[in-house]
Design goal:
This protein is α/β, with parallel strands linked by helices. About 40% of the residues lie in helices and about 15% in strands.
Length: about 200
């Protein structure tokens, strides 16, 4: 016998899927599901198609690991960017946050996470070797470590410092306008831009 808090098992399934999204509770998920139900069928098909297309066809830039429609992202393909500076970040979201400040004109390197033994994430699980390969070629003057100020972020920054310092490259870190434990994506644009502008030499 069908038992549910909803009048329809189809509605319940839709709500369950929406509620798997970060920050979306059951009430918000129900509101979204009912909203789509009242939309023309072609709008819902476009909605679903956009996410399927995104999931199946998105690429990762061969240089910086940023998501892209092509093999090389628009940032790495832009000759106006300063290609002697690499800003190392944890995720794609951090690139978008920094780009929104309009205060940084170098390139990026997306690690794909941070070292976290508690979560089973070690250096080999991240795009660290690819970063070292970029630096080892000798064309990079500065590496900015713009990772979260959590313990895991600090551990990752220290690991990268030890890994890259042998190449004689200048290694800096964002200023402490970003409070300890904060993620870049949740930092306001003014604070983040000042943290980048006032970056400091990385100290062990």
């Amino acid at each position: 016998m069908f038992k549910s808090n909803y009048s329809s098992i189809l509605l319940e399934k839709a709500v369950e899927q929406f509620s798997t999204l970060p920050g979306i509770g059951k009430k918000s998920a129900l509101r979204m599901a009912l909203f789509l139900l009242n939309q023309p069928k072609e709008n819902v098909e476009k909605f679903a198609s956009a996410f399927l297309d995104f999931r199946e066809n998105i690429k990762h830039c061969k240089v910086c690991n940023m998501i892209s429609d092509t093999e090389f992202c628009p940032i790495c393909s832009d000759n106006r960017r300063d290609k002697t500076i690499i800003c190392v970040v944890e995720s794609v979201r951090d690139v978008l946050s920094i780009e929104n400040t309009d205060k940084y004109n170098g390139e990026y390197h997306v690690l794909g996470g941070i070292i976290s033994p508690m979560d089973g994430i070690g250096p080999s699980d991240l795009y660290i070797n690819e970063l070292e390969d970029r630096v080892s070629k000798g064309s990079i003057n500065e590496v900015i470590l713009a990772l979260s100020t959590s313990m895991e972020g600090e551990t990752t920054s220290y690991y990268l410092f030890k890994k890259l310092s042998k190449y004689g490259v200048k290694i800096t870190t964002i200023a402490r306008g970003v409070a300890f434990g904060d993620d870049l994506e949740y930092t306001d644009e003014i604070t983040l831009s000042k943290s980048i502008e006032n970056r400091q030499i990385f100290k062990q």
